[in-house]
Write a structure and sequence with these properties.
It is built from twelve helices and 14 strands. The chain has helices at residues 14-23, 36-41, 77-81, 84-89, 91-97, 103-108, 111-117, 123-130, 148-151, 227-233, 240-253, 264-284; strands at residues 7-10, 27-30, 49-52, 62-65, 68-72, 134-139, 142-147, 152-154, 157-158, 165-172, 178-185, 195-203, 209-217, 224-225. A hairpin with a 2-residue loop joins strand 8 and strand 9. Helix 10 runs antiparallel to helix 11 (240-253) and helix 11 (240-253) packs antiparallel against helix 12 (264-284). It is globular. The structure holds flavin-adenine dinucleotide (FAD).
Length: 298
C-alpha cells in the first residue's frame, strides 16, 4: 500500500518544527522514518502533514556536561551505540542499542524517534527508565523537562502534547563501579523483544551492591521499573538466594500481554529467567571506571 496524501514541511530549526506542528492539526515529526514510514504505508497513521527534522543538524550530538550525558533527539542509534562517551558513562544504553533491529535500521533510526514512538517492547524506553533519564521537550515558545518515569503513558503514548517534540535526552552519568547488562528474548536476532531486562548494578569494592536498577521491556503497555527487585539487590551481596529473590520479584512486577507472539505466563516466566541472566552478565562485565564494558548477553 501507499501512504495517504500529506503535506511535507522541511524544518530547518527546532523552533520552525514546533511552529509547524502547532500550525497543522494532526501533524507528525519525521525523524529516521523507521517506524513512521511503515505505519504510513499501511495507513495505520494518516497525518495531515509531516515535519521533517532531518535538516536540523544541531539536534544530533552526544555531549557530557554537569554530570549528565546530553543526547540530541536526532542522534542516530548507531552514533550513540558507538559513541565513546556513551560507552564510558552510560554503557547500558550502548549495549541496549545493539539489540535494536539491524545496523541499517540503527543507521537511520533516532534516539528521539524511539523515545517518542514509545513502543513498550523497544529497547530505548526501558533503558531510559532504568537510567533515570529526562526528556527535554520543546513546544512553541516553551520547553519542559519530563522524567522518563512520567513520559511513557501507554502503548505508543507519551506525555508529549501535539505541538511538542523531543529535543534532547539527558542521562545521569553512572557512578564508578557500575556494571550493566541486557538480556533479551526475541524470536530472531533483530526482532523486537518478547521480553528484555536492562540492569545496572553499582557495587562496592568488596562486592556489596550499593544500587540496583532493573527495567523490563515487552511486559506491559509501558516499560516497567522493577523497584521491589531493586530493593532486594541494593544493600546485599549478590549471592544465589538474593538473585533468585530479585528474579521472582521481577516476575511479580510485570503484567505482560498474551498475543500471537507469546502467552502472558511465558513472558512472565522469561522475565524471571532473563533477570538472573542479566545480573549474571552484569557481574561478569567490566565496571564503568574500567573503560569500555565488553557488553552483556545478547
Ligand atoms: C525491520 C525493523 C526492525 C526494527 N526493530 C526494532 C527493535 O528491535 N527494537 C526497537 O526498539 N526498534 C526497532 N525498530 C524501530 C526503530 O528503532 C525506529 O527507528 C524507532 O522506533 C523510531 O525512530 P525513528 O527516528 O525512525 O522515528 P520515526 O519513524 O521517524 O518516528 C516514529 C514516531 O516518533 C515521532 N517522532 C520522531 N522523532 C520525534 C521527536 N524528536 N519528537 C517528537 N516525536 C518524534 C514520529 O512523529 C513518529 O510518530 C525496527 C524498525 C524496523 C523497520
Amino acid at each position: 500500500m501507499k501512504a495517504a496524501a500529506f503535506d511535507y514541511i522541511r524544518a530547518s530549526s527546532a523552533d520552525e518544527a514546533v511552529q509547524a506542528l502547532a500550525a497543522h492539526e494532526d501533524a507528525k515529526i519525521l525523524a529516521g522514518g523507521q517506524s513512521l514510514v511503515p505505519l504510513l504505508n499501511m495507513r495505520l497513521a494518516r497525518p495531515s502533514a509531516l515535519v521533517d527534522i532531518n535538516p536540523i543538524h544541531d539536534l544530533a550530538y552526544v555531549r557530557r556536561s554537569n554530570g549528565q550525558l546530553a543526547i540530541g533527539a536526532l542522534t542516530r542509534h548507531r552514533t550513540a551505540e558507538t559513541s565513546d562517551l556513551v560507552r564510558q558513562h552510560a554503557p547500558l544504553l550502548a549495549e541496549a542499542l545493539r539489540h535494536v533491529g539491524h545496523v541499517t535500521i540503527r543507521n537511520r533510526g533516532t534516539i528521539g524517534g524511539s523515545a517518542a514512538h514509545a513502543d513498550p517492547a523497544a529497547e530505548l524506553p526501558a533503558t531510559l527508565l532504568a537510567l533515570d533519564a529526562q526528556l527535554v521537550v520543546r513546544g512553541s515558545g516553551r520547553e519542559r523537562v519530563i522524567p522518563a518515569g512520567e513520559f511513557f503513558r501507554g502503548y505508543l503514548q507519551t506525555a508529549l502534547e501535539p505541538d511538542e517534540m523531543v529535543a534532547e535526552i539527558r542521562i545521569p552519568v553512572l557512578p564508578e563501579g557500575t556494571r550493566c547488562a541486557v538480556a533479551e528474548l526475541a524470536r530472531r536476532s533483530g526482532d523486537f523483544a518478547l521480553v528484555a531486562i536492562f540492569t545496572a548494578l553499582t557495587l562496592e569494592p568488596g562486592g556489596l551492591c550499593r544500587d540496583a536498577r532493573i527495567a523490563v521491556a515487552g511486559a506491559g503497555e509501558v516499560p516497567v521499573r522493577a523497584t521491589a527487585a531493586e530493593a532486594i539487590l541494593a544493600g546485599s551481596t549478590l549471592d544465589e538466594d538474593v538473585i533468585s529473590g530479585a528474579a521472582i520479584a521481577v516476575a511479580r512486577a510485570v503484567d505482560p500481554p498474551s498475543d500471537i507472539h507469546a502467552p502472558a505466563g511465558y513472558r512472565r516466566e522469561m522475565a524471571s529467567v532473563l533477570t538472573r541472566r542479566a545480573i549474571g552478565s552484569a557481574l561478569s562485565t567490566q565496571r564503568v571506571s574500567d573503560g569500555h564494558p565488553d557488553g552483556g548477553a545478547r
